[in-house]
Amino acid sequence: MTSPISSIRNLGPAYEESCAKIGIKSAEELRELGADETYRRLLQAGTKPHFIGYYVLVMALQGRPWNDCKDDEK
Q: What is the spatial distance between Cα 53 and Cα 17, in angstroms, rounded to a whole number?
């Protein structure tokens, strides 16, 4: 059984749609790929780079609130 990407905290329908465009269709696939590879694929597909987009993904995969990233961690 697979879970939708939007089942991951902080990631909603828009993120799910972006992932579908790069062939990632489930939360399990996203977790397996990890933040670095997923973000690399999003950039290759035309997503504009932005540090907030990256750290939101990192925080989501860690099960943390998107705004939990502070100071040196950013």
A: 15
Separation between Cα atoms, residue 38 and residue 27, nearest integer Å: 12
What are 18-40's pLDDT values in tens digits?
Answer: 999 999 999 999 999 999 999 99
Per the CB < 8 A criterion, the answer to whether 22 and 29 are in contact is no
- 33: tokens are 């790929």
pTM: 0.87
Return the structure tokens found at 24. Answer: 């990632």
What's the domain count of the chain?
A: 1
The distance in angstroms from the start CA to the end CA of the chain is: 34
Please say whether the beta carbons of 65 and 10 come within 8 A.
yes
| CATH code at position 46 | 1.10.150.20
Domain of residue 65, residue span: 5-73
